[in-house]
Design a protein that fits this description.
Elements: H1 3-12, H2 29-40, H3 59-64, H4 92-97, H5 114-124, H6 153-159, H7 174-185, H8 198-211, H9 216-229, E1 233-236, E2 248-253, E3 279-284, E4 296-299, H10 301-312, H11 326-329, H12 332-335, H13 341-350, H14 352-360, H15 368-371, E5 377-382, H16 391-399, H17 417-440, E6 465-469, E7 474-478, E8 488-491, H18 493-503, H19 513-535, H20 540-550, H21 556-567, H22 582-598, H23 612-620, H24 627-631, E9 635-639, E10 645-651, E11 673-678, E12 687-690, H25 696-704, H26 709-719, H27 728-742
Parallel strand pairs: 1-4, 5-8, 9-12
Antiparallel strand pairs: 2-3, 5-6, 6-7, 9-10, 10-11
Helix pairs in contact: 2-7, 10-13, 14-18, 17-19, 18-19, 23-25
Length: 758
């Protein structure tokens, strides 16, 4: 049988139950091929920044193929048409019209398959031997991409014979290579996923019924939930949830429950759906789960009871549904004014880590512009829900329309310093109005007490969060991890909601450079407001001292804005009495205040199960400051054979983070620190190491002695698992396995696109 005939049989054969049936001798996509792609290919081809937009985490992405257009372009003057898989087109023909070309060849002919040929190219031209790859390999994120179409592959292979797949990584094991090539030769047939269990289909029906009631109040609440959960990986379960749940996305559909989902694809979740009635549906996500975008959110009986109590059974009326006009849809304080702010706040805090994770991971996979607005590591706390959440407070927030306007409402305008001054003026006006409101309602505001800070209701570990920035990505985990950071945030409800509509609901990865710049600019104001909320718990002189450290060398505009907090008295007077080290004492008091909720963290070295002397040696690394920490990459994963894993996180220091430009000129490497945690923290490792448990104390001493690049190179010679290391895939598999064992619901495929070549 010819390859073309085999491909036809493979894609048309059906089993008795109507599912696609893979012909005998052809690897099955679900059981044989998809696991190989996940382990070896999705580690680089899983997100918006997948080379050539080739997303290999779903069969539809493979069938869509590749594009020469970039998603990430910091220079474009106009927004780009979105190319979201499963959203902006569904049929392969539609993607061809949008410039995507096949990587599978035509008529099942393997000789025309870019995917088959680029894998085979490795066998013809193996990687050079040695610990490091030559400089001809470009691993920078902005590197040129050669997205060869079938007719262009010969020229590509002649010019770049070493640029085979996996790019800059060891070749696939023979058995895995054979699986992919046999599957590609058969025409890359798809196979249907396993049918959903009856319990899951029943849960879908139940939750969709809850979200699609006819009452105006229900429809408004459902819109609010959708605009905050549209990025979530929803799953059903309780304490007995299986290790590998099926994940769903909450989508807007033109069709009601019981009918096939017809997804409404708008650029932003709050834009006009173009239909009279929106239906909120649970869509099964077929993509492989990748760590960098995975944000699980459980739907269970407890969650339903809370939503019922906060929203669906609460005593409030909705006279008319708000529209989707650009002037108001991006402002949640107007759109959802009828929903009590206390209910909205409790909803956001109930899964506070998820809420913040949306800001950190959000709709992006590469966020240097957005993320250089935050420190490399800081702690986050929240104000207590119920504080100032009267009906008058909802009216106050809605009345601040002009002062709380977000830049996503005006994408077409070019960024300039005038935008800073406009938002500066609006933010100052809001802060003064906010403080006046607090003073007018002082009986509801408990001054001078840490009770203002949410204690997680004594059981929610998200009461405090640790945020780690890794240059252009970031991670958020529960608890106060590591040594006390330079800065901390206390986030109140208005800041929490505005950050969501700025960085999540309102952010467009396909937007213009101006849109992205204005988003980053406005985030400056929100970060400073959260920082000032934290400083409110400290004495006035300590506030000034801290600000002087946080904003060394800041621009005149930023310096003048910060002065407003002191000169115009817009920080609420919450401070108590302290000794000689107020910030240290405040962190200690916060830790005690939150201890019942936080408990012991899995990320603490004490949870590693390593000998006490080893834990002490590793813990001492967190007292390092300066050169040793600066020499380490941002994120280093350490595999411990026969045991667990560690993560070393370099905390880069800056004079200030108040500008999106010239970040390198504001670096303070002498102030760099190091955080060491148990387990894997981060989606983008810069380096993989392997250290035997008994060698960890010596390894820690070697890190402490790092002084120059040559020292780091010698350490890698002893412990490194470089790109060329024959152990690479075995160590990768071990780390993924340990991640799944430690956090089965949260685990996702890591991304190796940032790995060092040194």
């Amino acid at each position: 049988m010819s390859l073309a005939a085999l491909a036809l049989v493979a894609t048309s054969a059906l089993a008795a139950d109507g599912r696609a049936e893979t012909p005998a001798g052809v690897p099955d996509y679900r059981t044989d091929v998809r696991p190989v792609l996940a382990r070896r290919c999705v580690v680089c081809h899983g997100c918006y920044d997948a080379p050539c937009q080739l997303k290999l985490g779903a069969h539809a992405g493979i069938a869509r193929g590749a594009s020469k257009e970039r998603v990430y372009d910091g220079t474009r003057l106009r927004e780009e048409a979105p190319s979201r898989l499963f959203r902006d087109a569904t049929a392969t023909a539609a993607w061809r019209e949008r410039g995507f070309h096949t990587v599978l060849g035509s008529d099942g002919a393997a000789e025309n398959s870019v995917m088959a040929r680029i894998l085979a190219l490795r066998r013809e031209h193996p990687l050079p031997s040695g610990p490091l790859l030559p400089d001809s390999f470009d691993f920078s994120l902005k590197r040129d991409q050669y997205c060869a179409a079938p007719g262009e592959f010969d020229e590509f292979a002649a010019e770049h014979p070493l640029w085979s797949m996996p790019y800059g990584l060891p070749d696939l094991p023979q058995a895995e290579y054979d699986v992919l090539q046999r599957w590609l030769a058969a025409g890359a047939p798809d196979s249907a996923p396993d049918p959903l269990p009856a319990a899951v289909t029943d849960a879908i029906a139940s939750w969709e019924a809850l979200l699609n009631g006819d009452a105006l109040r229900t429809r408004l609440v459902a819109r609010y939930l959708y605009e905050h959960l549209f990025l979530a990986h929803l799953y059903f379960g309780d304490d007995s949830t299986p290790d590998a749940p099926v994940f769903f996305r909450l989508v807007r559909s033109r069709t009601p429950p019981g009918e096939p989902i017809d997804v409404i694809a708008t650029r932003r979740p709050y834009e006009d759906p173009g239909v009279v009635r929106v239906w909120y549906r649970l869509w099964r996500d077929p993509l492989s789960v990748v760590d960098k975008t995975h944000m699980p959110y459980r739907l269970d009986a407890e969650r339903r009871e809370k939503w019922q109590r906060w929203f669906f059974d609460a005593a409030f009326e909705v006279a008319a549904l708000p529209g989707y006009d650009a002037e108001t849809a991006a402002n949640p304080f107007i759109t959802f004014q009828a929903i009590p702010p206390g209910a909205r706040h409790r909803f956001l805090l109930d899964e506070a880590r998820f809420t913040i994770m949306n800001f950190i991971k959000g709709p992006v996979c590469r966020g240097a512009i957005a993320l250089n607005v935050i420190q490399d590591r800081f702690w986050v706390f929240f104000t207590r829900p119920g504080l100032l959440h009267s009906r008058a407070y909802a009216d106050f927030l809605a009345a601040q329309d002009e002062h709380l306007r977000l830049p996503s409402e005006s994408d077409g305008k070019l960024w300039s310093i005038a935008h800073w001054r406009r938002y500066d003026k609006a933010q100052q006006a809001y802060l003064r109005a906010k403080l006046d409101f607090i003073r007018d309602n002082h009986e509801t505001f408990e001054r001078g007490k840490l009770d203002v800070v949410w204690d997680g209701d004594g059981r929610n570990p998200d009461a405090a969060l640790s945020v780690f920035r890794h240059h252009d990505s970031a991670t958020v985990v529960s608890g106060m991890i590591g040594r006390a950071p330079l800065t901390a945030w206390v986030i109140d409800y208005p800041v929490l909601e505005r950050i969501h509509y700025l960085l999540v609901a309102g952010y467009d990865v396909y937007g213009s450079a101006s849109h992205q710049a204005m988003t980053r600019l406005y985030m400056d104001f929100l970060r400073m407001e959260a920082e000032m909320n934290f400083l409110a718990f400290l004495p006035p002189q300590t506030r000034r001292d801290e600000i002087a450290r946080w904003y060394r060398g800041a621009t005149d505009e930023v310096a003048d804005y910060v002065k407003v907090y002191f000169e115009q008295d817009v920080i609420a007077p919450l401070y108590e009495r302290y000794g000689v080290a107020p910030k240290v004492e405040l962190f200690e008091r916060l830790a005690a205040h939150l201890e019942p909720a936080l408990g012991a963290s899995d990320y603490a070295l004490a949870s590693s199960g390593l000998p006490e002397t080893t834990v002490e040696a590793l813990d001492e690394l967190m007292d390092l400051r300066g050169r040793a920490a600066a020499l380490l990459p941002q994120t280093v994963f350490v595999n411990i054979p026969g045991h667990g894993a560690l993560t070393l996180l370099s905390d880069s220091a800056y004079a200030n983070i108040s500008s999106m430009f010239f970040e390198d000129l504001r670096r303070l490497p002498d102030d760099d620190r190091l955080t060491v945690v148990n387990g894997l923290l981060g989606a983008y490792p810069d380096m993989l190491l392997e250290v035997e448990a008994g060698s960890l104390p010596a390894f820690a001493r070697a890190i402490g002695r790092l002084r120059e690049d040559a020292d780091w190179s010698r350490l890698l010679d002893d412990y490194g698992v470089r790109r060329t290391d024959p152990r690479f895939w075995a160590v990768s598999d071990a780390l993924h396995s340990k991640q799944r064992a430690a956090r089965p619901v949260e685990a996702g495929i890591l991304d190796f696109s940032r790995l060092d070549n040194r």
